[in-house]
Amino acid sequence: MDFRTIVDIPVPGFRIEPGYKILTVGSCFADHLGKKFRDEAFEADVNPYGVMYNPASILHTVERYDKAVDIAIFTLGTNHIYRLKETGEIVDNCQKRPQKLFQEEELTVDDCCGYLEKAIGILRHRNHSVKVIITVSPIRYAKYGYHGSQLSKATLLLAVDRLVRCPAIEFSRNLSYFPAYEIVNDELRDYRFYASDMLHPSQQAVDYIWERFVDVVFSDSAKRYLQEWKPIKEALAHRPFNPDSDAYRSFLSRTMEQKQQLAIKYPWLERT
Question: Is the pTM of this model over 0.90?
Answer without folding.
Answer: yes
